[in-house]
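[Discussion] Sanity-checking designs against the backbone

I'm trying to build intuition for which residues belong where. Below is a structure token string of 103 positions. I'd appreciate it if someone posts a full sequence so I can compare it with mine line by line.
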């Protein structure tokens, strides 16, 4: 959920985003509202920030540069499986966000 605003705005690269201060304001407002609605922490934690950076570096290495150690192309099923593992690892609990708990 750390990049949820991209579903409604755009995924803009960091170098370009640095030159768009108005975009950052809009993106922050969108993320604050989404965090409140869906019950996730915002601003994102240092752990999420580090995981996002590591994923970006891995994607750049494996997809853009090609990873000679990669034996086979990463499949959609593999991506979904890895996403769910990390989602369940980091998702908030009702104890963290009681207003999102179902009765």
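Best answer:
Here's mine. Compare freely.
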């Amino acid at each position: 959920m750390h990049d949820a605003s991209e579903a409604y705005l755009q995924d803009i690269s960091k170098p370009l985003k640095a030159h768009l201060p108005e975009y950052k304001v809009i993106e922050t407002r969108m993320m604050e509202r989404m965090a409140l609605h869906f019950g996730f922490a915002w601003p994102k934690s240092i752990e999420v920030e580090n995981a996002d950076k590591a994923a970006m570096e891995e994607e750049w290495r494996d997809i853009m540069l090609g990873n000679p150690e990669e034996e086979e192309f990463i499949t959609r099923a593999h991506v979904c499986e890895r996403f769910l593992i990390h989602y369940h690892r980091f998702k908030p609990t009702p104890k963290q966000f009681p207003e999102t708990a179902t009765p």
